[in-house]
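Bumping with the actual sequence this time:
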Amino acid sequence: MAGTTAPKAPAPAAPATKADVARAYDDNKLAQVLYHDWEAHTYDDKWSISFDSRCVDYARDRFVAITGSPEPWPYAKALELGAGTGFFSLNLKQAGVLDEVHVTDLSPGMVRAAQANAEQLGFTVEGRVADAERIPYDDNTFDIVVGHAVIHHIPDVEAAFAEMLRVLRPGGRFVIAGEPTHMGNWYARRLGRLTWKATTALTHLPPLRQHWAREREALDESSRAAALEAVVDLHTFDPDELARMALRAGAVGVQTRTEELTAALFGWPVRTFEAAVRPGALGWGWAMFAYGSWQRLSALDRVLAHAVPDRFFYNVGITGVKPG
């Protein structure tokens, strides 16, 4: 079914200060909580997350691309690890891939946001504040564990894979999508920084300032967020080494899939531009242009994947199965 854009989660009590950022360099768990609590109330807007057909299709297509020919849907009991605002699991539920959904995140603000989004969509999810290296569920609890853009935040990725396998029932599957590759992260970050500098400079010129420029306070807050983002983004991945991590943790049937080359070269500047201009300035026409362009370039990338090595693509996804 098609849902609606969900309400924003309550803002955290106070944004992270320079002192918070300084302390976070020495305490990564603190950094993860500060950053993701801080981002919880704006995260969906920042990443153009919705719960309508656009993102339902996106989530389902990522799931199918990674798993190939999946088992019959729906999976009866699912856990999303590092769920954020629930983008992956809630849209997979709407797509009919998942039935009962549970979410965990190290950030209390993100857990609340995911539960608020689910409520807006007409169902409830159990949410727990939890460390991905110590998942607070019994052995053999879930039929599937999913995650999106999560394991690059986890200090010990192999331990997280072992925990996913522990809470899965024998024969259960994990599916992790949207993780950055070494090369993809290199070019995406540089494109993002160049776009941010150019956009913020141009939109503060007198002819453009009133309609396009984001408030200086918001730009300063974004700069502090960028400083914390550098702390919480711990890993980039080589697809083959990522697969070996999962195998060492005990998974079988492990496979990886990379996506987004031209789509990332287009998408990162677009997302950065959107974050740098005044909210509401771009409108629905821009959103449809950006999404349509991304879809067309993603189709091109699927053709290029037959000739271009995996390491050049931006995203890598991985799936594996618990033995038995």
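The tokens above came from a reply further down the thread. DSSP finds 13 helices and seven strands in the chain.
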